[in-house]
User: Fold these one by one.
Assistant:
Number 1:
Amino acid sequence: MKISNNWLKDFIKTDIKTERIGEFLTDIGLEVEGIEKFESVKGSLEGIVVGKVLTCEKHPNADKLNKTTVDVGNGKILNIVCGAPNVAEGQTVPVAVVGTKIYAKDGSFFEIKEAKIRGEVSQGMICAEDELGLSDDHGGIMVLDGEKFEIGKNLANYFELSNDEVFEIGLTPNRTDAMSHYGVARDLNAYLSTNKQNAEFAKVSSEILNNEGSHSFTLEVEDTELTPRYIGAVIENVKVSESPSWLKDRLKAIGLSPINNVVDITNYILHGLGQPLHAFDADKIAEKKVKVGTVAEGTKFTTLDGIERTLNGSEIIIKDGQNNPMCIAGVFGGANSGVSYETKTIFLESAYFNPVAVRKAAKAHGLNTDASFRFERGVDPNITRTALTHAVKLISELAEGKLVGEILEEYPKKIEDSYVIIRFSKIEQILGTKIHREKVKEILKALDIQVLNEIQNGFEVSVPAYRADVTREIDIIEEILRIYGYNKIDAPQKISFTPVKLSANDQDELENSWARTLQSLGFNEVMNNSLTSVKDESDAVKLLNPLSNDLAFMRKSLLEGLLQNAIYNINRKNQDIKFFEFGKIYHKKEKYEERKQLAILVTGREVAENWLQPKSATSFYNLKAYVRVLLEKLAIDYKEVPSSDERFSDALEYVSNSEFLVRIGKVAPQMLKDFDIDQECFYAEIELELAQKLRSENELKFKDIPKFNKIRRDLALLIDKNVQYQDLYQTAKKNKSPYLKNINLFDVYEGKNLPEGKKSYAMSFELLNEEKTLEEKEIATVMDSLIKSFQKEFNAELRS
């Protein structure tokens, strides 16, 4: 949200510097992300002086150029080559002297330098209106009135130029009260007034209007639940034209394009006071009757953007006397009822619409307007009439309109303020410090929160309706804190807590244990949004009222989010990535499914580049090793099976008790291409609920460190190429000997000196008897048993 400093000063006058105001706004929760300079004319005509053309003759070396001499004051005569067809001797003209910057519409510029043009020296530039940013006219140079413009004077002295500083505020969605210049000023005043800063706040109230004659318009609100308050005014003899410079500059400063004086006034009130308004061409309203309600499902309606939309029957619709839709209330106007330059009479609307109904309509039609953004969060119902009267006054001043007849209004049931009880003990508990009661009272008053009654341990208060987000005691405590000042709350030097014993049935303990393990291995944890867009909607869970098309579905996998994290880092030259995330995924099959997973993504180098170790890219096997470290904490048995998951080019699944537990794979090239990633990525996902279930079924046991040493024996096996290490591993695990403790593959060889279709695996076996030292006979028995199993199952041969 953009807030103009000049506009802000209309409501709060202070001599505090702009940068300091930005700090104060950030302190009270209106985080200022930046302050930009705004100039109504880029460059503010700096370096542009008034000159007089003394001589003008054809350029000797170019047919379309002229060679001029120009007096720019103080006896200084410049030689300037000019290509404009209308330049002539005796003209008073704007001149850009050497060193002046000439700006284009996109903000780029070039600097005027002394140069030779076709052999003739040019010491400046005679400017056209578009080159100065004064208009779009490029028919020739700008010719000034010699009687009004003095030679040598700065051209800026003759124009009302607007310079401003604009705050870029990262406003949280709950702060509808601050979605306007008046709202920001009101909040700033609450802070300044309670912190003894010099400021003068101008509270707005309804303008006193004079109406003439009468009108025959009528108003009907069909459902006061959908439209609790609606006000309309009829204004005649309106002259729709271009807005004055001051109004256009206000809108341009916050990034809006001026349209015409009537529309600009409604935008000015919207961003000034926070109340959306809408102006209808009154001559296009059938039977001079405005109805507010709904229409039948399937009704066609063309909006201002020229798109024909099919209404679903739940939208609040502004209709004429024949039930023709004129506007989707609070969202978007109609193409056939808006104000144009031919409009003479307008019907001006100011209302409070049901926030939920507006939000549903906006999301259903994929529309997000400044009006809907405010209505769907809840505007101030008590400023509705004030905003209308201010707009009517501006229309009378800038468009010569005359208010006729009485203002129409439907407001059968007043929207009441919220009633809340706050306790001093709760304030002190939350803040961790004690604030004097009178200070609390002062802050509440500054926030327009009225103290109705003082009770033994607190206050009974009334919260104004414009604070739709403040409805509970904790909300008011937060308000007190942000105005009192977060920086005034000292952090405790000592924090006391009681450790809680976690059991094997606690999944949080498992997650924390895994997180610590991964962090110790160099991983960083990430958190991504559960809402996303999907390519395949077949089993996706879709939101009924999504925030946008990009956030319309619940995520089906954690992979996409991690790939987005990866490319974000890769683009910033951080290419060695180890990420993990705990999160839920969602599917709609026979019923809705929700599962929690641990996802791991690695890409880039396994070890940071250094002089001691060679460069080594991370691999599938590195990721597999990380997963094994985690699974060791479960103390369970599992087996590997191939996976056909389309997200991977190569993948394995770990299965335990016939249930899928882990999937590990190399991310498919097409998926990497979709995210513009050009380096290999490896991904693993672990089903947390199943991991916790398997873990809780295994009772954790502790035992002493063995008193006797392990014995290692190695085997070099010649096997067929299609035999996998996992097959050998599972066969060895089935060995009945209690002495076999560990199995490992330490070498693989394929190449010369081996029969065709064969490969060699070198495996180590660790044996241990915890009661005594193993005898060679016992060791030989185990190894012979292993060799026979390998020969029987895989036709393996021993290599010498």
Number 2:
Amino acid sequence: MSKRLPSNFKRNRAATLIALSLGLTSTALCAQEAEEEQSKDELYEQIQITASKRSTGLQETPIAVSVTSGEAIEQTQVLDIQDMQALVPTLRVTPLQRSTNTNFSIRGFGNGTNNTGIEPSVGVFIDGVYRSRAAAQIGDLPRLQQVEVLSGPQSTLFGKNASAGVISIRTGAPSYTEEGKITLGIGNFNQRLLRGYYTNGITDELAFSISGGINKRDGYTDSVVDGVDELNNRDRWNVRGQALYEPTADVKLRLIADYSEIDERCCTVSDVINGPTTGVVRALGGTVLETDDPFAYESALNFNPNNQVEDGGVSLQLDVDFDTFSFTSITAYRNNKSNYIGDVDYTSLDILTEEGNTDIDTFTQEFRLTSTGDNTLDWMVGMFYFSEEVDTGDTLTYGQATRPYFDVLLNGGVAQAIAPLPFDAVFPVGFLGTFEPLYGQAPGTFFAAGQYVNSEFLQENDALSIFLNLDYHLSDDLTATLGVSYTEDEKDVSIEQINTEVLSSIDFVNDPTVFGVPLSVAAPALTPFIPTLQSVQFLPPQLIFPNSVENGNTNDDKVTWSARLAYEVNDNINVFATAATGFKASSWNLSRDTRPFAADQAALLAADLPRANQSYGTRYAGPEESTVYELGMKARFKRGAFNVTLFDQTIEGFQSSIFVGTGFVLANAGEQSTKGVEFDSTYDITDNLTFTFAGTILDPVYDSFEGANGLNGPTDLSGEMPSGIHERSFVAGLTYYLDFENGMTGYVRSDYLYESEAQLVENVPPELTREVRTLNASAGLEFENGVSVQVWVRNLTNDEYFMSAFPPPIQAGSFNAYPNQPRTFGATVSYLFD
């Protein structure tokens, strides 16, 4: 926390965190008229934002944007982006299978989960640098200045992959005045925090800063298996250095280098529906957790999962002021490496193990020319270049219990089918053992331990955006804005696979023979059981590409635009109307479930390319194209402020990625739309007590989505409500500021998050839903000598809900879910010196 400002100054700043409630509008207008003759500076503190890529006042910027200050983030003990949704109701952050898998959505729109090929629809920028994947976004936030969440398509100014919105994070630049701070913290689950920064000037023209942090915590999920540790621990650290060089009053260079590491056991999975395969696991001596208490925070994994992330990069921003315009250049290079190993059957049996690794190299370059001064026409022109190489792969390996599991599973199913005939009379060596010699395989070959499927993907992506933005001031109060951007995005993708899994390589459909003799002749009694054997061929050999039919290339281009009218009713009320479009290029399915398009089947057959048991689906999902219409108002008055935006937003070709147990089904939804309203407001009830209230009300629908992956396979979701989207989300906060005669100051704060009930995912039972009612609280004291203390608690009421759900591999009828984090609490002590 920076040195405390006078209490009135701080409360007025809180008042400008804005937004609105429709029911407050008429009351607020009356209050505004009473204060109309007071200047803006007397009514509120200006918060500067960069949503328009200019530094402008929050209330004067006609963009639907929510701003969270560094002070609010520190007060509420927000340690990374995942916790941000507790303060911004239009933002939803969903952590999934690993620390690297986090999905961001704004107004219900968003994708980019476990599948590395699915780039997010919500662009994340840290100090102007685009972060293309969640693994490069989740490090603990250091020396934070503020976070801006921009709703709706932002492709015109932010270019690549901002079709649903933008999260823009700004950290503090180095100071020429010496300042430092160190923070120590402890919490339950043996949490230990250490954070700090130091900044100072080296010369009158050169300043630097260095910051870093360590965040460690034991896991909160206990294992029921001996020798396996608890899950959901924290073990991460980061370091960040900056240099600020200002050789003249018109030239500024800011160099930033950062590095962070994560080494954790993630993530807790609960058994919420145990299907018929549960009995097989238990018959083999394995443990499947009961479903009566999915929030018991227990794990039945047979080994410690692990995921590691190394993320680092360097950026250089150059700003040069000329007489009538300014020039900005932001150059950045980043590298992100991650690897993981996990027990993906989620039982104590050694059935399936998955290992994976990803290496992402990203280079970005942005140039901007921006008009300066008082002009009738303000302009901005620029370009953004993006180049990235993604090298990712995974290996699924059979364990010691894989063959026994499938043999018992198949024996049981077949025994029921042929009862009362004695099973041993038909299959004396077991179901699998009966078929192996018929196909020339040694006993014990099918599902043998150590067989594996290794898939490796390489994606090279180059993109270029050129943009122009014009603000024409029709009068002192009325401004028309027109923006246009051209984006071209090209991807080249290849896949290689090694598949040693024997059973899935046998083609029962196109070559149902035994030693060249039809099975109906060689073993007629066994013919009826072939479909049963086919049902467990879940890892067929992959058709690699590029090949003579599939070139592994997509090349997309699109012109996006935005148009806006903004009218300043008076010093304290602004209204605006916006129409804008957004664009996100094709995303490739970099998972084991990538399959050729059905449209390519004839050409593939003609080239004799299909593999055994070849099936068809999608290699990639085509571009997303979004459109939004908005009508908004920003207002402030003596004791508060509020904003509101009505919107009608549509995405055509929404890239839907659904996990189906062994991979991802990737498809374009025909059209998904949402009508709604988002608002946030603040009101100083007294000089010491501030109330904030923000919310989002949505009416989402799949206007068309044929072939969606539903609970029972492909289905038509047209006219249905998309899963995972809350129709109502609200955040309410109450902060009481303390002032003591001895100069000591403090605060007591509480924040309540509510999200209405929503189905988790399309392909899980509808009773698996999420509803959030979470209360957070904190309190702090700051002394004149720079020492401050804080106590905090997150999820005070121990609210329980699922973040997402999925069908586990090879366990038909079972479903697992990710439970939220239980109550956590702690205390920190800080010392600020200057």
Number 3:
Amino acid sequence: MARRRSRARLPLAVMAAVAVMGTTAVAGPSVAEAGPDKPTIRYTEYGIPHIIASTWEGLGTGYGYAAAKDNICTLADTYLMVNAQRSRYLGPAGKASPGQSQNSTSNLNSDLYFQRINDNQVVERLLEQPAPNGPEPEVKEAIRGYVQGYNRYLAETGVGNITDPACRGAAWVRPITELDVYRHAHAEIIMGTADPLLDGLVNAAPPGASAAAAAAAKAPTAAQRAKSARETGRRIREAMAASRSDSMGSNALAVGAQGTSGGTSMLLANPHFPWQGKNRMWQSQLTIPGEVNVSGASLLGLPAVNIGHNDDVAWSHTVATVAPFGLFDVQVDPLNPTMYLVDGAWQRMTSQRVSVDVLNADGSVGKVDRTMWSTRYGPVTASVQGIPLPWVVSAHAVRDVNMDNLRALNTWFHLDQATDVHDVVNTLETTQGVPFFNTIASDREGNALYADIQATPNITDEHAQSCLTETGKILFNQTLRLPNVPPVSIFDGKRSACDWPADPNAVAPGLLDPRKQPRLIRSDFVGNANDSAWLANPEQPLSFPRVMGDTAAPRSLRTQELILTAQNRINGTDGLPGRGFTPENMRHLLFADNSRAADLALNATVKGCQDVPFGLVLVDGNLVNISEACPILAAWKSHDFTADSRGSWLFENYWYRLAGGKGVESLPWKVPFDPKDPVHTPNSLDPGNNAVRDSLARTVLAMRNAGIPLNTALSDAQKVTRNGEQIPIHGSIHELGVLNVVTPGLVDGKMDITFGSSFIQQVRFAADGPPQASSLLTYSQSADPTSPHYADQTRLFSAGQWVTERFTEEQIAASPALETKVLD
């Protein structure tokens, strides 16, 4: 990797400051240029580590030690998963969450999935390849150091002395290898496919010959096939929409020179990631003087900053609308269903016996074996997102664009050293490692960048239309409109020409030419809230291949809110003083928790409530009096989901019943969607629509049955529990069009926050001087309930407060909470 030297403003006071902190390093200009002799971790407020070293290996060592100190149990559990040993230690019936939506599968299925990958040495083969497909030298050095740091912490502490009760004394907590870390990285990269397909991949089995022959003898008519295709497509899309509504997402807003007040550019990073498990984010600053100086957060256990900033560039990611996988429908021989037809000739599927250890009820260890099948296109699956794909007269094979992707590690190491947004674009194009994310960035020169340049299947519009099956057309062309669902392809596997072709401009076979992928650089703003690239800025709509998402289609209410927030602030029409973004008003606008759904529909909802005769609505044979709800909603004039708002919890539950899992345009609006005015349409909810009254009545009935007052404050209804302390959490689910997304759900049988705002960062650049940043890790740095940093930032989040970032050496040295660990 060519080392980029950004303007790393590291003064000669580096070692003077380090010396004051009690390290053994020697002060002097040479150390300021090269870093300390030993990896050094400086902890500031809220347990944020600032790691400085003279080498990539040393930087990785510091990261590994600090990450293990905060989250040893979460990390050990992750390595247990990617090594396919959950059933061995935790039992086959336990639950695992390897995917992005945390839809849990069984430990057994998780183990079978990862054991197959391990048996095939997928990661080992990638490690042998030269860059960009294999890791670059600095990546290898950092991961080598990470392993040393992790293992050092474990050796110093001892498994029996781990403070976190989740794994104290557990036999499955062990020293790790570099392969463990690469397997973890690979698991993160492929989770966009693992989530909807894991169970189907491990459970696919051929039918008996008699069953297949009987099905073939009952050949459906063309009309029956078309009806079946539509029904299967509809069910898959609805299942994926339901999963996406309860999965990772994000907002990101980059503001250029024309949109800021008192700076050259700004960035708001607001990823919505899980609050538990392997996809927790973890904050750090990583510094090698003269090489890299980057601050932000990473997915726990990956020794690079995934979302953050350096001296000159700030960036974030949002989940994109690209499907990282595609299916191939292969015709099978009814008398031998493991034979399939390609170009008029029969080919034999390959079989693979996968075996994993399982813990039996009596404490003994046994084995479970499973035979899995593959075609030339990839492995066979029995379902997508739980919707069956019967293996009868045909089977469905999966091709995953990320199965051979370790390039993402190179991508993030390059982003950590980027010098401007053009450098960001170059990194994205030359690595094509981003697995299923958009990238939004700003730089010191006043540019704002949106880029959906990632590992994308090489499916041009022409290729798709010539190869899609009937079900594939339903899914890919989005005949059924549902929010934020990627266009999944199902191709005719009988024709080898329908496989994804190799493009000479792509980094690897089967990838779409990165030059065909959308990007936009502007001086006002760009943003994304998990819709497609079409309206990154509504003044300059983008076009792109259909595989990357839709155009001229309704945007989610959260996308509307993001665009309107940017436009109104830049124009000075949002009621706040002045024009343009400042750090103060950007933080305020995120935590204002305004609901676009309430802006559009609250008044009509109140009218519909007031117009119900005697306030009585018949629900499942019961008369429900909704009249009490009318004045409560009418009094909720702020339309916000701040902690003390009353009426918001009632409206949230009502709106979820009315709109949950549906596209925006499917609601009873009087004004339909207009592609010429996509930010303001559809609008004007019909207050007399039966769905409005029914949804409100069902909500009133449910809240009364649960003993929740209709006017309950959000702080009384939406909380997270930390060591018995109930901390109120503001924000709301994405259907409400609130930027600060918070998703409640069951965790270990108790209500908690499962997804939502995680690592939030606001960064401003000026013409000179260090970046000015504030951040917040909503669930705090540590998952260990005995840690002082288990809930400290969570309390800040509850109060709407932020942490002022310490980035320069002077700022770090000035921290009143400063503690230093030198890894001698």
